[in-house]
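Trying the structure run again after the queue cleared.
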Amino acid sequence: MDVGEDFGPWLARQLRRLGISQAELADRVGLTRAAVSAWITGRAVPREDTMRLIAEAIGTDPGTVHTRTTDAVTARPTSWYHRPAYADGGREFGNAAAFAFDADVEVLAREATQNSLDERLDRARPVRVRYTVHELTGELLARFKEALGWDALRPHYEAAAAQEQKVGRVIADGLRDMNERDRLVLLKVDDYNASGLTGDDYEDGRFAAVVRRQLDSHKSDDSAGGSYGLGKATLWATSRLGLVLMNSTLSVPHEGRTERRLIGRLDLPWRVVNGEPWAGPAWFGEPDTAPGSEDVARSWWADEETVERLHLARESDEPGTSFLIVGAHDVASRPNDTIEEDADDESVQAMHKKLVHALADNFWAAMTSGATAAPLLEASVRTLRNGVVVVKEQRVDPRVAQPSRTRALRAYFDGDTVDRLTEVGQVAMVKVPLKVPTVRGRGKVAEHEAVLLVTAAEDADGKPNHVVSMRGNRMRVKSVRVPDLPLGTTSFQAVLLAGHAAGRDAAEADRAEAFLRASEPPEHDKWGQTEELRATYSPTAHRRISEFTRAANNAVRELVALRKERNQDGPKVLRDLLRLDGVPAGGAKSNSFPTIIDVDAFIDADGAWQVEVEVKLPLRQDSWVMSPVARFDVRSGGRPAVAWSRIVAGENCRLVDDALHFRPRARTASFSATTDVSTHPVRANLAGLVVDLQKSKGASR
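Done. Tokens:
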């Protein structure tokens, strides 16, 4: 609900907007200039009868003066303000922050949703995020361009597009697509139960951090995912026109109001228009009247009709912000040749699918709830064309996208975990220590206990045998396959909860959260050495993270190390494709040489065979030196050999120059390997795989 602004600042702004001096107002109400000055500085408040005189003097009603939730003059024309070129001749041919990320809607979904999650207002409820892909054509596109003041923007766009540099070429492509096909794609990101763009237009606050500044994160929560202030740049990077409009409902009133605070920002390269140079960025808003900011475009309080014309309407008065990306595109999905005329449906539908996938992949944990734990996030995607539904609103369900991992997290929330996996569907939990170093050598090293969850994998999870790591806001930071797993390991999924994700009451959670946050790069996709980590802690602080990772992998291996029973009825598709040749070249008897006795194998997402091999070794005083060989068993012709992209030594084994050296007197050994897809004569699922061991060249008998 709007709360009236203090009288002094409100009156000062009305006088500036109307061009009335303090002395002139004093004359109109029959008082001294000193009395007006006292009102404006807050030293005094006018009496009831004087407020009526003030209302008459500035051309408004007494109710407006009393409530002070609107301006006396509400209709001031909006326009574009372009930043003048620098006097020293400096030129910027684009926003460098936008190049920190790819112009990919999956990256946008990750970064924008992370920012919304960081600004969750009511901690007892989830923040709600909705993505709307909206394609405009014909008359609706013309109306939108008119509301946007396109005629004033056109010469700036044309000047930018004519320049032979990266941003100029992207803009030229966007203009060509819009003009030749009479088509423009809008991508709106709405969040609810979020803080909104609060604060002054220019001073410190959320508004200035997003609209006016670069590298200003201004996060309100110490569990925030963002820390560089770069994520917001993905909004502009996803626009081929470099244009984003914003409509914010504020959690804290500004100028006595909370609803429909609008602003637009345009990022163009340096350019010359009608002989006058311009620096780059521009803002769409109301010309300011504050001293020192005259004519600079500031935010304005729009009416409902304007919000509708700019496609910025919000569905409720709940605090949050709507970001409208004008000319949205997805570089990763655009073909290199010309786009076919019938590709419109496919492009917006492909964008819809990628958004759903990105939200599920990165935020499934934030969307997971338990019997007593509410989700942190709700997310949905819908697609429209000229206001008509093309793809109905699809709410992202983490249980569908990540069934095993959500089962693990729910079990943790509900206290249903076990110490060891003995039955299908169980979730095992162990604590993994993270030693948190001191800040610049002050204080004592702390030990934080992260939570590791392990459960059996399901097909819908995608790649098995991975650990997904996260911290405070439960956004996926990294997903890494566990190396050197024991042979016969049943496929699993693991979740590592660190920092505040392990629980606010976890030992040293605050320090662990800050430490891991400092170890993330701008993409927030791993934990490791960063400049912030080095500067805040020490040059060797990243070693603690390496130790933490090793401890987590060891804990996983211990949980899944129970040897399973041989399953001769295992995956039939793989049994049909996989063959073991245990006899070395030369025709020696199998009991005279190392023999392959078991293989676990699958075809990964890249189309490569991944195999984990167990070898039986005849007793021998010296080391066996063997080379693993992979061949494709194709339908006709010989068996072409394929190369390994990776070989990892396991139990009783070490790798030297691509040859396996088995430990003397050992009776069994193991190794794992991955085929090199570039050497496959056909796709992996179109041929059988033959795994063989051959005596390495130069090895002694």
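Residues 223-229, 334-342, 563-576, 580-590 have pLDDT under 50 and may be disordered. Worth checking whether this holds up in the mutant runs.
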